[in-house]
Amino acid sequence: MELKQATYKGVRLEEVEQDLVKLERDIGWFGEHSNMEHLEARVETLRSRYKDILELEDDGTLPPVVTSLISALQQYEDMRR
Fold it and tell me: Which pTM was predicted?
């Protein structure tokens, strides 16, 4: 299934993928640029936008792009500690 047309729980997976790419880029740049406010704002926006799917238990049926987003958000949390 192509991401452009795919949805999961009413969320377009193409949008999740685009947001994931931006988040991963920002996390990768964090050490170099230290723009924590920008990164925090992006994370809060994503948590709000994808609240419904981020709260689901990963029972093996989540699309890979969603599990990648969850992992990136966890990476952000780990980085803040």
Answer: 0.83
